[in-house]
Amino acid sequence: MTTYDERPWLALYDDGVPADPVLPVEHGLEMFDVALRARPTAPLIHYIDATLTVAEVDRLSASLARGLSDDYGVTRGDRVMIQVQNIPAFVLATIATWRLGAVLVPLNPMFRPAELDKLMADAQPRVMILQAGLFAELGTVADQHSVPLISASELDFVQEWPADLFPAAERVELTGIRDVMDLIGAHDGERPSPIELTGDDIAFLVYTSGTTGPPKGAMNTHRGVVFNSENYRTWCGLTPDDVCLAIAPLFHVTGLIAHIGVAFLLPMPLVLGYRFHPVGMARLIERYQATWVMGSITAYIAMLNEPRVADHDLSSLSKLWSGGQAVSPSTVERLEATFGAYVHNLYGLTEVTSESHAVPASRRAPVDPTSGALSVGPPVSGFRVRVVDEDGLDVPVGETGEIAMESASVVPGYWNKPDETAAAIPGGRLLTGDVGFMDEQGWFYIVDRKKDLIIASGFKIWPREVEDVLYAHPEVREVGVVGVPDAYRGETVAAFVSLRAGATVSSAVLVDFCRERLAAYKCPAEVTVVDEIPKNPNGKILRRELRKRAVG
Prior knowledge:
Blueprint: H1 28-38, E1 43-47, E2 50-53, H2 54-72, E3 79-83, H3 88-99, E4 103-106, H4 113-123, E5 127-131, H5 135-144, E6 149-152, E7 178-179, H6 180-186, E8 202-207, E9 217-221, H7 222-235, E10 244-245, H8 253-265, E11 270-272, H9 278-288, E12 292-295, H10 297-304, E13 319-322, H11 329-339, E14 343-349, E15 354-358, E16 384-388, E17 401-406, H12 418-424, E18 430-438, E19 444-449, E20 454-456, E21 459-461, H13 463-471, E22 476-486, E23 490-499, H14 507-515, E24 527-529, H15 543-551
Parallel strand pairs: 1-11, 3-4, 3-5, 5-6, 6-7, 10-11, 10-12, 12-13, 13-14, 23-24
Antiparallel strand pairs: 1-2, 8-9, 14-15, 16-17, 17-18, 18-19, 20-21, 22-23
């Protein structure tokens, strides 16, 4: 009988992908510096209609580092908080922070004052870079924590702003607040003193979404950044001739590694478009001949359902991966028919510094015949993965349990939270909270989150299975399924769907569609049709919002 220790997935690796990655450098800054020596004149950032070379990014980020050091006292180990959209300032701040041995703390621009207040209290940043348009709402929070602010503008470097996609942007004049570009200009041509980094130094402090409690700051090390940037390069077959479309937000671990990390490592151009818009992404793909995309399935679906995307040439796309949310086989088929390239599945977490499993470039994900789930792939290089029960013991191959994993990219813990670290990462082994199984060939399947399990009249129901059935209906665009309290059954299934443009299918028809394909206890009594399924910025369904609506 197959065991996890036999690592049957090794037979699924493409030729040339080692069992353990050979790291080309020790830390994230070294990735950039190697690129600088090798290809200084190569484009590194394409932002809307502007381009910055590797050498230009180096000069700008070095000046920014000197300004952070001399004018704000940033030094080794300090936290530099940043809350901006996908704009060049984010990339410049990443390198500048690393040149000082400091830690970048990326935040979602959608965070409101109460959320920012908690994160500032936890991270205690030395300084914060904030997008100018957010100052009116968030500036007072920084004042309350005595954190100096630096503003950043989405207009920097842009010649012509795409006003048909985003609100007309204007420069915001902020009294007493320095701007990133002003700080760079004041230290133009200057560089900070060299500093020695190691793989154990913290590169990013990334706050998790807090689905199981208050947000926790995952301490992503430089070793983890290099480790999984290298995994993306080898696993997805990336070369310096590729062009990365930054479809994910840079503040998320996907953007940090699959976009910034990989762009530094190869190097290859990173295409930024401020924030996601289906038509904006299509324009950028056509303009810069983007080849590589790693994004959420909801972003792909949004492009699929936007008629104006068809006006653009997307033929350059050849390397597509998706992660962060379950993907139904029917959705993958529709996407391939539209984009002309197969969307490979991928799975990962903030706590492993992005990806842990991926469908190899030359393969297609198998479908589990029992559940209909699409495999997320075998583990990528350097991961030891098993499926365990409530006591942490291996379950037999093919049976469902919690996914547990070990690798050099697993974070050493959560910032200032030793108890949470001990519970989630005992002895360096990450307990993911995700439920799945491995088949005899080494393919892994994610069933759902442990906490999202629905138990109705004693029967276990995974929302993913119901969602996959509804996704198969031709009129359905997106689906979210949750469990809600029920006086008789304990819990019952509540389903929400948004429809494709022009569709008018009724709830009753969708319920009948489920009844034809699912056991009675798994079927929702009602399917609520909504305009949009609530999601976080990285495309994950906000099930807590759906539960509120269901019981509301």
